[in-house]
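Quick one, tokens below. Sequence please?
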């Protein structure tokens, strides 16, 4: 008998997490008469003593959860249960404590909402046993394998598109080249989709190499045709023409912290064609703000499916959105591959047909 389930969010936050938490809570209580506990700060809430959790109810999961960004449960990117940091700065395997916490709380299952890093951890926990897990994908990067969309991606694309909407009039007023740098880690989905939606003239993504001379020529052609401004969108992990990553500060969890490629491009364009150029780094605004309708719907559908899977005892799986259906796949099948932009895919074809420079494949 499933009587009590836990919900947690881990990894970088995004818009739509609270909508998923609400859907899980409402469906579990209304349809299955089940208790729901929200575990705070990912699995850390199960590891710390006293444990950190809150009861989730119909009243603390009202409609306002659909509209709010962030996660009411908190999240972490630094507290991997297998390398858990302690006060002395050392890291140790605390996964047994997480499993003990799960049993102490008398949980029958956990629904874990996370990105690719979290899925790696969840897959290890599922293999270790002692915890019934169902996962829900979230990431603005949309780089998780198997699912067409993850929670948070659509809102991030909307935010980046709106940034281009705002940059275009000022670009036109001042006859400038505007460069917008967006997140996405090693996948160019946000840049490609927002670039098409926001009318970029140049879209640079990590999956396709580019040539600075070609970009300059493209900008000059636009200018010669009578349009006095250009819009460029670049994904944060795009490298310099020489092949160097542009990083900001130190990396953690073996992951680089990208940032600054727009500044590099700005300097190159100014030096090469004396274009009046400005750059904007959009940063974490892409992860906040009201989730758009698409993310609210996706999060709600994922939440409902995840709860149904718990009651079907269909554990060790992640829900996915594929061809307008919500399905489920083994967690480990989501961690070996990476969902990057297909350079031969429909969106690249569409961008090229619009006359957008998208780089050059060798
Ligand atoms: O994975 C989501 C993401 O927002 C990436 O797009 C970005 O590179 C990274 O997280 C930023 O991480 P942090 O919030 O740790 O700076």
């Amino acid at each position: 008998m499933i009587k009590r389930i836990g919900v947690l969010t881990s990894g970088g936050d995004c818009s739509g997490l609270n909508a998923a938490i609400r859907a899980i809570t409402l469906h579990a209580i209304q349809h299955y008469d089940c208790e729901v506990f929200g575990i705070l700060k990912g699995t850390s809430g199960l590891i710390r003593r006293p444990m950190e959790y809150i009861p989730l109810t119909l009243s603390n999961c009202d409609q306002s959860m659909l509209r709010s960004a962030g996660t009411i449960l908190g999240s972490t990117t630094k507290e991997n249960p297998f390398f858990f940091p302690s006060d002395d700065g050392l890291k140790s395997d605390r996964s047994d404590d997480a499993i003990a916490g799960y049993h102490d709380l008398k949980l029958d299952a956990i629904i874990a909402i996370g990105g690719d890093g979290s899925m790696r951890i969840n897959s290890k926990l599922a293999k270790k046993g002692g915890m019934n897990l169902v996962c829900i994908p979230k990431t603005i990067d949309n780089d998780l394998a198997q699912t067409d969309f993850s929670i948070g991606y659509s809102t991030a694309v909307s935010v980046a598109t709106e940034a281009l909407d705002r940059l275009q009039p000022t670009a036109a007023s001042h006859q400038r080249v505007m460069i917008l740098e967006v997140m996405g880690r090693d996948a160019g989905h946000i840049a490609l989709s927002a670039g098409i939606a926001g009318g970029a003239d140049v879209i640079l993504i990590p999956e396709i190499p580019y040539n600075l001379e070609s970009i300059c020529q493209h900008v000059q052609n636009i200018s010669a045709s009578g349009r006095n401004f250009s819009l460029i969108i670049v994904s944060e992990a795009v490298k310099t023409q020489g092949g160097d990553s542009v990083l900001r500060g130190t990396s953690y969890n073996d992951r680089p912290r990208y940032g600054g490629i727009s500044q590099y491009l700005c300097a190159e364009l100014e030096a090469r064609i004396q274009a009046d150029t400005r750059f904007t780094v959009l940063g974490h605004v892409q992860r906040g703000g009201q989730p758009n309708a698409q993310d609210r719907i996706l999060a709600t559908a994922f939440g409902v499916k995840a709860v149904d899977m718990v009651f079907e005892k269909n554990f060790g799986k992640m829900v996915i959105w594929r061809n307008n259906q919500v399905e489920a796949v083994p967690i480990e099948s989501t961690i070996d591959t990476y969902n990057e932009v297909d350079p031969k895919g429909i969106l690249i074809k569409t961008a090229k047909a619009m006359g957008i420079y998208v780089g050059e494949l060798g």
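The chain has a mean pLDDT of 96. The pocket of 6-O-phosphono-beta-D-fructofuranose is lined by residues 12, 77, 115, 139-141, 183-185, 236, 258, 287 (CB under 6 Å).
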